[in-house]
Write a structure and sequence with these properties.
With about 210 residues, the chain is mostly beta strands. It folds into two domains: about 100 residues; about 100 residues. Helix content is about 0%, strand content about 55%. Strands 5, 6, 7, 8, 9, 10, 11, 12 and 13 form a nine-stranded antiparallel beta sheet that branches. Strands 3-2-15-19-17-18 form a six-stranded antiparallel beta sheet, with no helix packed on it. The chain has a four-stranded antiparallel beta sheet with strand order 4-14-1-16, with no helix packed on it.
Amino acid sequence: MWLRIALDPDRPDPPAMRVSYGPRAEQVLPISWEGSETTTLLGLDADRPATLLAIDSDRGALPPWLVQIWSQAWQRVTDPPALRLLGAGVIEAQGAFKHLTLTFAPSDAVVTIGWLDQRATVHLSAHAGSPVSVTLSRPAELRGAVLLPPVRIDRLAILSDPAAGSLSLRDVTIDGRPRQASWRSSNGSRAPGCRSSTACRARSWTRTSSP
């Protein structure tokens, strides 16, 4: 089960926050924030041969022919320098990014791109023989998540250090596959899903029904 939260983007760095899922002191897990990861994974899937000419980002260029790739079918080419795609694979880059722009050579391929929860499908044949660029951007809001252990959980609470000051929760989602229970927040509103509602002002949720 995942607990995901989003904060208004009114602070430069994500605060230290934790989720308590039981009465014992050790039943606390830290929230991991997007943007603090040390590795970025970019998934691509081309139904026909496609050539990735360039990757640009807010941190500069990532030459496709030099990045770490995970695919048995992709090939690095030198004339011009590029990455030849066929089928599915993953590009691994060091660090975190705010946006990524991928440029492809013209072809008949359809390329699907995935990064975080961003998705884009590019029909390269629809662009009349010119290179095609697509940009994926990280949302401006601060987003974090914690994967909870596979045990029965009756109450969840979001904790923050006093030094973090006032926090505005934009969204809170409690997400299980399959959905494990119904939840009610401390102010009486239901969760998951509190976008722009009073549930986002709560800091704790209690199980109200079992699966």
